[in-house]
Fold:
Amino acid sequence: MKGRLRLFSLFVVSSLVLSGCFEKKKEEKEKVSKSVSSHKASVVINGAGATFPYPVYVNWAKEYYKATGIKVNYQGIGSGGGIRQVSQRVVDFGGSDKMLSPQELDKRRLYQFPAIIGSIVVVYNLPGVGDGELRLSNKTVCDIFMGKVKYWDNQEVKTDNPSLKLPHQPITVVHRAEGSGTTWNFTYWLSQVCPEWKEKVGYGKVVSWPTGIGAKGNAGVTNYVKQTPGGIGYVEYAYKLQNNLTAAQLQSKEGDFIKPTEETFKAAASHASWSMDTHFYLPGNLILQPGKNSWPLTAASMILLPREKKERNKLVINFFDWSFRNGDQIAAKLGYVPLPESTKEKIREYWKEVVLK
Structure:
């Protein structure tokens, strides 16, 4: 009997010891798991810049946080601000719709790659004229933004639109107030299609506007046009889409009037000729690509990275790689054109061979 009791006691003690070991291991596992989760939660990636891609970056960041627990904060402060902040190493990455030349990238010690393709549209607030009904030739857009055409029933506008009943409504031009890549692309286009604009105004992130009122960001221009009967401005297509604005038909490089649609954006994007050697720099972005169905104001938005911050760059790259793999539907829904797979592969090669080498 005593032997049995001794065996039973040994069994109980062993069980308690084993149970304690399992509990200890479980606690250790939970601690490690909490530590990993806590580490992920403490990782924050900060970016700032172009308002052009702001809607898609914010939506990508939201889904990325759900998937990984890593936060990505992006502030839409304009391309000028994004270039400045990443050059000063205030943020982990900058967003710019103005592509930087290899020389400027060397000067600022930055890398550059495209993240998304979008388009700029000329939006208007003209009671009685629906979306896509208004046609504006290159010369007419130029003369409106030069301040030469002051009313909507001007003969020049009527010539473009013989079937429309245009009101005797003053035209209010709305443009960007701050340094903007959208402005760079829009004024670059005007400089290409209008000799007078090229001679008297030129192009850049900031220009001396001959007429109009300034607004901050794509959102600011959107709101001004929406609230101002007779208003006209230029915004990224996603803002037009989300705010139900009306946009004009413009002329392709070949002179055909076309509407801003996913098909015309893709047609322009298909002509992009990217090179790692130039950090994906194209002198005129994707403005005025050939093809009668190519939207003339198509543009790629770029990401800028500091050259010396390899560890932080890995975090930024992980975010954009995840977005390239999982974010195409989000981008398309918002009115952007996702990068072609061949371009994404070229960017991944650039990350491996240049950025992280």
